[in-house]
Design a protein that fits this description.
This protein has 14 helices and 17 strands. By secondary structure, it is α/β, with parallel strands linked by helices. β5, α5 and β6 form a beta-alpha-beta unit. The structure holds 4'-deoxy-4'-aminopyridoxal-5'-phosphate.
Length: about 425
């Protein structure tokens, strides 16, 4: 069988040097070198981020925005520096537009609640898509239940691309918001979000993009996209867990009520009436995950140092290589064949259960995800119970893909 070569000449990216930055990549699993292809679930952390978080706990830890003492002031400055870093990374207009949350899920729940309180009444409609992660379905469904509103769903075609002609037909005078994923975690599709936003804006409807699978794979410019809200998680872009971002255009955020009450989000508290703090603090009640926020800023600086364009080019190359090699194996279906994809491949070998293959290749040191990937409607679309998902990032190599392909072949032989 002909082996497709990896086009090393297409990218100018030193992957071996990059791998040195990630201590976990040198771990052995079941006595075999770890081949980590579960980056869609969470990414590994560079030493620099691990060191940063450790240094903060060892030398600088103190609650922010509260004290006049040195440590508290220093930590507050670092936290607000982290906010500026995120603002620059997304090319937001102002730091007031950057809210720290617990993650993508936290951000969407916050928005669905707050936006729903302000703008949604009985009979209103919310548009999502058929390829959303459960995190971008359930909070809107909960809102619909609370307000007796209705969910409308953009379908996707057999390649895993949203059908925009159908999307256009979903709008009416009751449509309040569109919430779609920038890139699909189970199909890999990069959605034509600029067009999606343009169509929504023609109908005077704001758009939230779920960037959980997009921020780590390419340049995000919220002003150029003209999205109204953008959300993502720190742990998927080489940062700590438990931290995420809710970006919103300032005038839109300003008009929304807070979704949680507590310390820091207030201006003046009296038993008769409480007034709220200004943006962004209005949406950051309680002691936030300030260490996570600062760790996220370090992760973003790390990504910037590698160059977002270099990362995107390398990952595109790796995706093409892995896809070609998987097709060469034969007797399997790849789910998600959109023209524009992030480096994710969902597949299912004929007559083999995804869990069986996942467990077998785990014994060979390979970490892939099996199941529905929190996108049950996507599995329903294809009438399957789940897929095997290999999700790659810029520290994965062509050699790792070869090991993975050999393991898939071996497992296939054993299971069929
Ligand atoms: N949306 C998408 C597209 C995702 O891939 C994920 C994580 N798999 C989420 C939302 C939820 O992210 P988190 O669990 O970090 O909140």
């Amino acid at each position: 069988m002909q082996i497709t070569p990896f086009m090393t000449d297409l990218t100018n990216f030193d992957v071996q040097k990059t791998r040195e930055d990630f201590p976990i990549l040198h771990t052995k699993i079941h006595g075999k070198p770890l081949v980590y292809l579960d980056n869609g679930a969470t990414t590994q952390k560079p030493q620099l981020v691990i060191d940063r978080v450790r240094e903060l706990y060892e030398k600088k830890n103190s609650s922010i925005h509260r004290g006049v003492h040195h440590l508290s002031e220093m930590m507050t400055e670092e936290y607000e520096y982290a906010r500026r870093t995120v603002k620059d990374f997304l090319n937001a207009r102002d730091t007031n537009e950057i809210i720290f949350t617990s993650g993508t899920t936290g951000s969407i729940n916050a928005l669905a609640f707050s936006f729903g309180e302000k703008h949604v009444i009985e009979g209103d409609e919310i548009i999502i898509s058929e390829m959303e992660h459960h995190s971008n379905i359930v909070p809107w469904q909960m809102l619909c239940e609370r307000k007796k509103a209705k969910l409308r769903v953009i379908p996707f075609d057999e390649n895993g691309e949203l059908i925009l002609n159908e999307y256009k037909l979903l709008f009416n005078e009751k449509t309040r918001i569109v919430a779609v994923t920038h890139a699909s975690n189970s199909l890999g599709t990069i959605n034509p979000v600029k067009e999606i936003i343009h169509i929504a804006h023609e109908n005077n409807v704001p758009v939230m993009l779920d960037g959980a699978q997009a921020v780590q794979h390419g340049k995000i410019d919220v002003q150029d996209l003209d999205c109204d809200f953008y959300v993502f998680s720190g742990h998927k872009i080489y940062g700590p867990t438990g931290i995420g971002i809710l970006y919103g255009k300032e005038h839109l955020l300003d008009a929304l009520p807070p979704y949680q009450g507590g310390g820091d989000m207030i201006d003046c508290v009296r038993f008769e009436k409480t007034t709220y703090n200004v943006l962004p603090f209005k949406f950051e009640a309680g002691t936030t995950n300030y260490i996570g926020a600062i760790g996220l800023a370090s992760a973003i600086e790390y990504v910037n140092s590698k160059g977002v364009e270099n990362i995107a080019a390398y990952e595109k190359n790796l995706l093409q290589y892995a896809t070609r090699r998987l097709i060469e194996v034969g007797e399997m279906t790849i789910y998600g064949n959109a023209k524009e994809k992030i480096s994710i491949i969902s597949f299912l070998p004929d007559k083999i259960h995804p869990y069986d293959m996942g467990m077998l290749i785990d014994k060979l040191g390979i970490a892939v995800r099996t199941g529905t990937h929190c996108t049950q409607p996507v599995m329903d679309h294809f009438s399957i119970s789940g897929t095997i998902r290999a999700s790659m990032v810029f520290y994965n190599t062509a050699e790792e893909i070869d090991i993975f392909i050999d393991a898939v072949k071996k497992a296939k032989m054993m299971l069929s």
